[in-house]
Every structure is written in C-alpha cells, then in structure tokens.
Amino acid sequence: MQPLVSFDTVSKRYDSRAVIDQLSFSVPEGSVTALLGPNGAGKTTAMRLLLGIARGDGGSISLLGAAPGGGGFHDAVRRTGALVEEPALYANASAESNMRIQAASLGMSDHDPRIGALLGQVGLSARASDRVKKYSLGMRQRLGLALALVNVPQLVILDEPTNGLDPAGVVEIRELIRSLPAQGTTVLVSSHLLAEVQKTADRAVIIDGGRLVSEGPIADLMADAQQDTGYLVRVPREQHPAAVGALQTAGYTVAVEPDGALLVSGEIDRGARVAYALSTAGVLPDELRPRAADLETAFLNITGGNVAAAGAAAEDSIGVGGSDAIGGATDGATGTTP
Predict the structure, then answer these.
(1) Domains in the chain: boundaries
(2) Which of 102-106, 115-119, 163-167 is least confident?
(3) Residue 130 buriedness (CB in 10 A; 0-12 / 13-18 / 19+)
(4) Does domain 5-223+307-334 bear CATH number 2.40.110.10?
(5) Regarding beta strands 203-208 and 5-14, do their DSSP bridges make them parallel or antiparallel, or are they unpaired?
(6) Which of 94, 97, 224, 310 is the most interior residue, by most CB within 10 Å?
(7) In sequence order, what are the residues at sequence separation of 6 or more whose Cβ sits closer than 8 angstroms to the Cβ of residue 182?
(8) What span, in angstroms and rounded, lies between the C-alpha atoms of 306 and 29?
(9) Which three-class secondary structure state does DSSP give residue 286?
(10) Pick from 214, 190, 192, 208: which is nearest to 18 by CA?
(11) 230-291: same fold as 5-223+307-334?
(12) What is the DSSP letter of 182?
C-alpha cells in the first residue's frame, strides 16, 4: 500500500542554513504518526513543504499521491485538514459560523449535520453560538480541530493539538485522534508532550537538524531503549552516600533522579545483583525495580538527551488547512496565516 505522505531526500535552505537536509520518511495510510524532534529540527518547515506553502530545494514530496505544484496537488490539499498551534479563526463569529464558512469553502452544505456533530465531539456544543473572541486557548484548539475534520479529510496534520487543554480535555482529544483512522482519516501529529504522544500515536518519525534519525513503530523504539533504562532504587536520604558508594564499587553508574530515587545503570542482568551490592554496605532498599522504557527514554537515547526541546514551538507557523488557502481567514480572524 502506497503511503499517504512521503519525503524522498528533500532539502530546504534558508540563506546558507539547511533547515531540511536530505530528509526521507513516510506516513502509512491508517496510522497515527508522530513527527518529533528538538527545537529547530525542521518539523514545521516539513509541514510547510508538505502543504505546498514552501518550496523545497531538492528531492521529492508526495501528498496523497500528488507532488507540490503538480497535477492533482490542488485536490490533495483540499482532502487534507490541518490544525496548528494557533489556528486562524474568525474572532467576531461564533464557532458554528466558523464551521459553516469552512464547510462552504470546501463545497459542502453549510447546514451539513456533520457541523453540529463535530462541535459535540470536541466539546463545544454548549458554546457553539458564542463568539470565538470569548474563547480560551483550549477552546480555540478544539474548534481548530473540528474545522480540520469537517470534510472527513483523508489526511489530517495536527501541530500541538492539545495545547491549552486541561487534563480532561487532553484525554478527550487523544481519544478523538485515536478514533480517526477507523473513520478513514490518517493522522500526522507533532507534539512536545512525549507521554501523550506515546498514548496517541502508533508510529514516530524523529528528525534532528533537518535529517531523519529514526522512524518506526513506537513500540519498537521503546523496546530498543529498554536495555539502557537500568534500575530505580529508593533508600532513606541519610543512606544515599553509603548506597552510592557500594553501587559504584560494584561497577555500576549511579545518578540521582529529581524525586530522590537512585538510577542504577550498567551491565545488570537482574535486580538481585543490585540488592547484593547494597547489602554489602548494610543498606536495605525501600524499593528496587527496573525502570520501564517509555517514549521519552527512547527520544533521549536517539537525540542525545535533547528532550526539553522535543516538539516544542516550531521554526515558523502555518494556519488551519483543509481548503485552498491554508489558514486564509481574514476580517477579524485570529491566529497565524502564512
């Protein structure tokens, strides 16, 4: 099956700086694929290139089987929805009016029942008649997602979709995103919340310096990181010096976690060896367990520790898509336009 998105040795330079450098990756149909990377990795530039907002300097891109600027690309963009960190909205219009405008721009009836259904799915039914200028950041994000999905796009591109949401809202949007492939919509999502990405996406594309550094199922990335996770040990604070000394004497590396736990790493085939090393100093641990690998651990291993910047604010910004002009709202619209 041909992927819905593919980059083949794509490059993009701004002046003398290579923002995208021989980048190759794909997004399979029916997947929720996360695009991850440190600040300045090239994530938003890749999205611009994919949507035809920016033009590459080399390589080839395919969006739903069409190349930017080529035959069929106009239609491919219309079949693609997009939500960015700050969606472009008509501030003086209601959420329902914003949805009707988007539907009409896509050739749909502005009375399509999907409008009300989507506002309900994103939790805005009770505020659908309110002007958007009264909305919080989280409510604007919800509306932006509904706008991106109004025409049941074949592909949706989401940049920080849970930005500004409370914990309950994050869960709601996660469940909505996870449901999209079953409805025929493939997802490409970028987020700096790695724990949330782990629960939402099934694949990850990790880029750094505009280059691909890893691509594949998230479960496989975490499995590869498992061998480097080590053991977590908890002992009373006053016993830290004795515990650290005993563990280092046994040949292990010890680091203190922010919550005071000791992270023990090295060649450890089982936890009993860590316990034995502690016993030589008369230290009995309150807790001793393997530290399970997660997406953050895998990301740290792959990018060399630059987790603080993972998926954060992008190099530039794009507006809400799914129509001819991505984020082209005007006349009192809020948000960023290209």
Answers:
(1) 5-223+307-334, 230-291
(2) 163-167
(3) middle
(4) no
(5) unpaired
(6) 310
(7) none
(8) 30
(9) coil
(10) 208
(11) no
(12) G
Six-digit token string for 103 = 């539907």
Residues 57, 9 contacting (CB under 8 angstroms):
no
Report residue 282 as tokens.
């008369």
Whether pTM exceeds 0.85:
no
CA-to-CA separations, 200 to 165, 170, 226, in angstroms, rounded? 15, 10, 20
User: Are the C-beta atoms of residues 64 and 26 closer than 8 Å to each other?
Assistant: no
Is domain 230-291 classified as CATH 3.30.70.100? yes
Q: Are 70 and 61 in contact (CB under 8 A)?
A: no
Starting from the edge strand earliest in sequence, which strands make up the sheet with 262-265, in order? 253-256, 262-265, 231-234, 287-290
**pLDDT tens column, 118-147:** 999 999 999 999 999 999 989 999 999 999
> Residue 11: is it exposed, middle or buried by C-beta count within 10 angstroms (0-12/13-18/19+)?
middle
Return the CA Rg of the chain: 23
Cα–Cα distance measured from residue 110 to residue 101, given in angstroms and rounded to the nearest whole number? 7
The Cα–Cα gap between 247 and 121 comes to: 53
In sequence order, the 6+-apart residues with CB closer than 8 A to the CB of 56 are: 10, 11, 12, 20, 49, 68
pLDDT, tens digit, 9 for 90 and up, residues 94-109: 999 999 999 999 999 9
Strands in 218-306 per DSSP E: 231-234, 253-256, 262-265, 287-290
Instruction: Write the single-letter amino acid at 199.
Output: K
Residues whose CB is less than 8 angstroms from the CB of residue 338 and which lie 6 or more positions away in sequence, other chains included: 48, 53, 318, 319, 326, 327
Residues in contact with 122: Cβ distance below 8 Å, sequence separation at least 6, in sequence order: 142, 143, 145, 146, 172, 173, 176
